[in-house]
Amino acid sequence: MRDSAELAGGLRRFMGDIGARFDAAEDELLILEEDLASTYSNSGGPAENDLRTDRVREVFELIAREAPELGLERLNKVFAPGAQLVQRCMRDGDLQLDSPKVGVMLLALDAARDVLESLESTGKEPDEDFAEVVQRLHQILEA
Which of 35, 39, 79, 143 is disulfide-compatible with 64, CB 3.0–4.6 A? Predict the structure, then answer.
C-alpha cells in the first residue's frame, strides 16, 4: 500500500499531466459529435478522426488506470465504465460510435472536470457520485 506522501506526489503528477490532455480530448469529442450529427464532415477525414479517437481513448485509459491507484473513487466510478465504452467504440469496434455515445463520453469528462476542480480547490473529491452518468454508461455497455 502506498503511503500518503507517495499518493500526494502521484496526485500532483496526475493533475499536471491530465490538464492539457483532458482539454484536448474534450475538443476532439466535440468535433466528433458535430461530425456525427451532420451530413457534411469538415473534420479532416478518416485519418484525422482516427487521431481524434486515439487522443480521446488515451485520456480515458489514463484516468481509468490512475484513479484507482490514487484512491479517487468517484473518478474511478465514472471512468472505469467510460474507458470500457471508449475501448469498445474506438478500438474494438463492437459498438458503433454515434452522437448519444459521444454525448455520454462528454458527460463523463464533465464529471471528471468536477472532480479535478474539487481536488484543486479542496484537496478531496466532491460529494457527488455522478450516478446518472454512471447509469447511462452502464446502460449503453449492457445494451
Answer: 79
